[in-house]
Amino acid sequence: MPTPEEAANVVIRATGIACKNINTFSGEVLRTRGGRFGSGMGGLLEALWGYYTNQALLGAGEGAAECEIAWLSDHEYNDFACILRDQNWVSADKTGELFRIEAKSMNIGVDEAKGHFDEIVVNLQEWDLLLVLVWSWDAADEFRVYPHIKDYFIGRAAPVALLRDRLHITRGGSFISRADCPDGCLPDACKHHGEPLNASGKRERLSGPESTRPSAKTSFAANFGGLVRMLKTNSEGARHIFKEVRATDEVAHTYISFIHRNFPNEERNQYSRSEWLQVAIRLGIETKGLAPADIMAQIQATPNYQDALRGLYVSPPVE
Predict the structure, then answer these.
(1) Which of 15, 101, 126, 233 fits a disulfide with 80 by CB distance 3.0 to 4.6 angstroms?
(2) How far is residue 251's CA from residue 173's CA, in Å, rounded to a whole number?
(3) Dihedral of the CA atoms 305, 310, 313, 318 (nearest 10)?
(4) Going by C-beta distance under 8 Å and a sequence separation of 6 or more, which residues neighbour residue 23?
(5) What is residue 6's predicted lDDT score, i.e. its pLDDT?
(6) Which of 124, 115, 185 is nearest to 158 (CA)?
(7) How far from 36 is each of 121, 145, 146, CA to CA, in Å?
(8) Torsion of CA 193, 194, 199, 203, to 10 degrees
(9) CA-wise closest residue to 116 among 25, 178, 204, 241
(10) Which string of DSSP letters, residue by residue, matches 83-110?
(11) CA 113 to chain centre
(12) What pairing do the DSSP bridges indicate for beta strands 129-139 and 174-175?
């Protein structure tokens, strides 16, 4: 029987095969005229990931074939669970379960505001995974388009959530403590522990304290955990934390690199001009006489340049 770590690594490897096969299927079957935004196609691609990942697991050899992807049938936060194949599975108490997967999709041509990773850290298990699919409507022929997965991230959810939470705090946000719940819950029975509040003290999730509702018109603020927005920094302290986590955590670095690879303007704005010059020098790029845009173009054309960005973090001196 595979351990959660072994199964998670197999699912991570299988995702590349699954996305390739989804694109083949999409190009042959999901051809359409128009390519409407807000079509719900992202949800279909997420579902296809489950089906095609199962096919990849069956063909991945001993160990991988012992687990399968199951679709959670109720309204729980997660979309999928990785379970033991052909064994009893009870989602209510996670019997037969190895870990869970939350799937998100983003159409590269649409604002990402609806894409949120907002599960609180206390609910995440060590090997729970986050899957993010970036896709677009691409030409299938002269007249038709099809949904094409352009890139994907899959990795442990907890490190991404921890980065999100640290940056949330730098923006003036906070998290509910069971010792001081705004709804006056008893500490041993508090159901709001770990829920995020924004800088105005309003809840960011529907499950937050009732006393912190933003207004009669909205149930919750819904700004917390935007897949792109949560990486933004607006202070020197936030930028320090961003660089620290990127330098020291491989999963967080991979997620940041994925988002910035697909949203390059976010990456350009994340660092100062002097920092980009430092990176150019480290990569051996001659900057004399070049305009900033040309320097950026050369940096982003250099293989593995994002690894060099990790070197911008300077750890504080030990006292």
Answers:
(1) 101
(2) 23
(3) -140
(4) 148, 149
(5) 93
(6) 124
(7) 35, 10, 10
(8) -60
(9) 204
(10) EETTS--BTTTTBTEEEEEEEEEEETTS
(11) 13
(12) unpaired
Q: What is the pLDDT of residue 1?
A: 83
What the block records as the tokens of 56 is: 């990849």
pLDDT at 116: 87
Q: Which residues of the chain have pLDDT under 70?
A: 60-64, 75-77, 111-114, 316-319
Q: Within 13 Å and on the Cβ side, how many CA atoms surround 263?
A: 21
What's the first-to-final CA gap in the chain, in angstroms?
Answer: 47
> 174: which strand partners?
197
Residue in this structure with the two tokens 């003290």, named with its chain if needed: 201
The pLDDT of residue 222:
85
Amino acid at 3: T
Q: For residue 254, how many other CB atoms are within 10 A of its CB?
A: 18
In the block, which residue shows the tokens 């907890």? 158
Residue 108, amino acid: I
